[in-house]
Amino acid sequence: MPSARSKSPKKGGAKKSSKKELLVDAASLRPYGVNYRDIITTPLGVEVTVLGVNRVDGLLWVRWPGNVDSPVPSKAKTKHELEDYGYFKRPTSAHIQRSIDERTAAYFNQRYYGGSGPKTASIRLPWPEGSPAFTALTPIDRPRPTTAPV
């Protein structure tokens, strides 16, 4: 005999969309004193990346290692409140180092795994004047020896 539980329809209900609309413009991020993709150190000592500000509630969203996205504490609405909770923006040198690391990883993946290379890898820049490489590539302007065959 089937039980009453098996006869009842499944209750799924309407699923909420987990898609959040984040604002990344400077005006939205100004109260927090950060920019898009800035690195912030958390009270735990973990470095997270700024994703943007949620359009609905105005909370700052960050990406933790492992691609976990979450908002900062809901009571932190300004830069000073973020710092009170222990969230501090990393210096510019950390952002430069991240760019270097991303470029090195892209170059490695291109070289060894056939991935796409760094964005600027195909640009051939001219040699600066006065450099040893530049002078080595320039033709020598001296007269042809008189003993050379014509």
TrEMBL record:
Biased composition (Basic residues): 7-18
Source organism phylogeny: Eukaryota, Haptista, Haptophyta, Prymnesiophyceae, Prymnesiales
Region of interest: Disordered: 1-20
Organism (species): Prymnesium parvum (Toxic golden alga)
Name of the protein in question: TNase-like domain-containing protein
Superkingdom to which the source organism belongs: Eukaryota
